[in-house]
User: Fold this.
Amino acid sequence: MYTTAVCPFCQMAERLLQSKGAEIDKVRIDLDPAERAAMMEKTGRRTVPQIYIGDTHVGGYDDLAALDRAGKLDPLLAA
Assistant:
């Protein structure tokens, strides 16, 4: 998950993923401009969080929460 220290949506995404028992690998783009550039190149987006589950780009917190509401997050995490 691409994140920054002061992002409330990042914190909500982290809490949701932790509640599912997911291991989170955080990449702090506020500490490394090269990581920010890599994130923007990889995702085509400028905002955080940008969440990957395995090789699947989920998107941001709203996308993650929508997957959970649709019942699709648990199967993705289990894969």
Observations:
- The mean pLDDT is 96.
- The chain has four helices and four strands.
- Residues 8-19 form the longest helix (12 residues).
